[in-house]
Amino acid sequence: MDFQFSPQQELLRKSIREFAEGAIARKVQHMEETDEVPWDLYKEMGKQLYMGIMIPKEYGGTNLGNLSRMIMIEELARVSAAVGMAMQIFHLGIAPLTDFGSESQKKKYLPGLAKGENLATIAVTEATGGSDPTGIQTTAKLEGDHYVLNGRKCFITHGHVADVLIIMAKTGEGPKGFSAFLVENSFPGFKLGRKERKFGLRGCNTGELAMENCIVPREYLMGNEGDGLKVCMAGISEVGRAGMAGCGLGVIQACLEASVKFANERILGGKPISQHQAIQWMISDMYMDLEASRLLCYRAAWMRDQKMRCDTDMAMAKYYATEAAVRCSKKAVDIHGGYGYMMEYPVQRYYRDAEILIASAGTSEIQRIVMARKALTSFK
Ligand SMILES: Cc1cc2nc3c(=O)[nH]c(=O)nc-3n(C[C@H](O)[C@H](O)[C@H](O)COP(=O)(O)OP(=O)(O)OC[C@H]3O[C@@H](n4cnc5c(N)ncnc54)[C@H](O)[C@@H]3O)c2cc1C
User: Fold this and answer.
1) Which of 62, 186, 288, 376 is buried most deeply by CB count within 10 Å?
2) Rounded Cα distance, 236 and 230, in Å
3) How far is it, in rounded angstroms, from Cα 362 to Cα 369?
4) Are 45 and 20 in contact (CB under 8 A)?
């Protein structure tokens, strides 16, 4: 067993950490206050070749793989979970294209995405289909050389800012009754709905979409008709859950760093509060949560790089790291006492950001269902 990162991965971590502590850290307050999407950051990350990390080299990416991606998202989320989330959904929007896209789709879209000139996302969720995506009601009907899409999507990250969207719609009945389409935001009948107002992840756009007789050329179908669940759920299970887990890792790390700093600096009764055993217990629990999350997350990402089946491992990593982020952010606020509730201290942001990592890409209950299914067959 090798628990070492490669020199290239260490270098990547260093360079992303520098970028995050500089350019992203300078933007955080503005994002918190305005909820504006930091376009300049994405352009800069495109120039630095960060955006193309999951895109094959022949289409302009660096193709560094899933382990490197986990490092990247952890480092981004350590400074801003909103930017970590934005990068994660971007990769999730790209995955169906790299894994199921036709050669012409890849040539047309991947180079621009790799440079950060365009943003991508995936839109599955609807009011009637969240944890159970088969509850969606958006329809796609083939009419000659194009499909006509009708329906509404909700809670779509980057929904109002992505140029390229992978949209799941119903084309029939039963599990093969779903298809995935690549939709450009300029297609006729593609409309934006409400922008969601979130209490966390400020600066990471979440919005509703409406397709009203939206015309999608036939060649924009991803894979074959009936492949929709496979195309979308493969990405969500392995790329989406990994990304959310990576965001959890970053938040835990940030909570631990802020808590240690505060506990060493806050003097009460003539000594730093870090000398109280009660505070040390909280710090040690956070430390253990960080290391346990890291092991699960990096192992699952490594498995995907080895092309091993890893859906249960991703579910475990996602469940553990995001729940741990919530636990740790609560402890971080507690360690800060009243200061933890004040906007000047970052732990209130970690607390608000951590909670939403649980719902996106499948709630904790859904991850437990995935794990139980495997355990019940593996250990009988
Ligand atoms: C900030 C944010 C960003 C998002 N980004 C995207 C995106 O980019 N693209 C996209 O398609 N979607 C996105 N989503 C949607 C997200 O994937 C869904 O919110 C999630 O799948 C849960 O669906 P739901 O909100 O409808 O909750 P529901 O499915 O209504 O669940 C409600 C509760 O019931 C529980 N529950 C549901 N089914 C079961 C079951 N079988 N057994 C036990 N408990 C169950 C859930 O765990 C939860 O506690 C985003 C959501 C958020 C909040």
Assistant:
1) 62
2) 10
3) 10
4) no
**How far is the C-alpha of 256 from the C-alpha of 258, rounded, in Å?**
6
List average pLDDT for each run of 10 residues in the chain, which is 380 residues long: 93 97 97 94 91 96 97 98 97 96 96 94 97 97 98 97 97 96 98 96 97 97 96 94 98 98 98 98 98 98 96 98 98 98 97 96 97 96
- CATH code of domain 120-224: 2.40.110.10
Q: What are the boundaries of each domain within the chain?
A: 7-114, 120-224, 230-378
Q: How far is the CA of 360 from the centre of ligand 1 (A)?
A: 6
- Residue list, ligand 1 pocket, CB within 6 Å: 89, 121-125, 130-131, 155-157, 201, 206, 356, 359-363, 365-366
Q: Measured at the alpha carbon of residue 102, what is the angle toward residues 100 and 105, in degrees to the nearest 5? A: 110
How many whole angstroms from 361 Cα to the centroid of ligand 1? 7
What's the fold here for domain 230-378? Answer: Butyryl-CoA Dehydrogenase, subunit A; domain 3 (1.20.140)
Q: Which CATH architecture has domain 7-114?
A: Orthogonal Bundle (1.10)
Instruction: Please tell me the distance between residue 131's alpha carbon and the centre of ligand 1 in angstroms.
Output: 5
Helix (H) or strand (E) holding 142: strand 139-143
Do residues 140 and 181 touch, judged by C-beta distance below 8 A?
A: yes
